[in-house]
Amino acid sequence: MLFVAADDGGGVAFHHVLPVVKKSSAECDILAMFCTNTEDIMDTEITPTQLAIEYLRRDKSNLSPAQYLKKLKQLELEFTDLLALSSNELKEEIYFAWRLGVHVH
Q: Using an 8 Å Cβ cutoff, are 82 and 93 in contact?
């Protein structure tokens, strides 16, 4: 086991350094998987469930747990359908809703 001393201006800190050993590709992949800090990975894919929960979080209705779950499932299906639309299809849906008077303030 090898330790290295480093001074970054705040005092001496000892860092553990693994000995250099040639590893196979599979071993490197496994080590990389465990050494990756998952907090640094940003997931930008929004799921229908996340959209439904966010919608319900902002909804002021007083729902029972059963009503909440029913509404959650309904919204998940609706958001799944909306996320599958192309840009033009989504614009058509928005225009159709606007013509029906559906809007959010």
A: yes
Q: Is 20 helix (H, G, I), strand (E, B) or coil?
A: coil
Q: Which two tokens stand for residue 101?
A: 């008077």
Q: How does 41-56 read in b/e, with b if 16+ C-beta sit within 10 Å?
A: eeeeeeebeebbeeee
pTM above 0.85, yes or no: no
Measured CA distances, 104 to 30, 42, 63, 97 (Å): 49, 30, 20, 11
Mean of pLDDT values over 12-38: 54
CA-to-CA separations, 66 to 51, 54, 56, 90, in angstroms, rounded? 19, 18, 13, 31
Can you point out the beta strands (E) in 12-96?
12-17
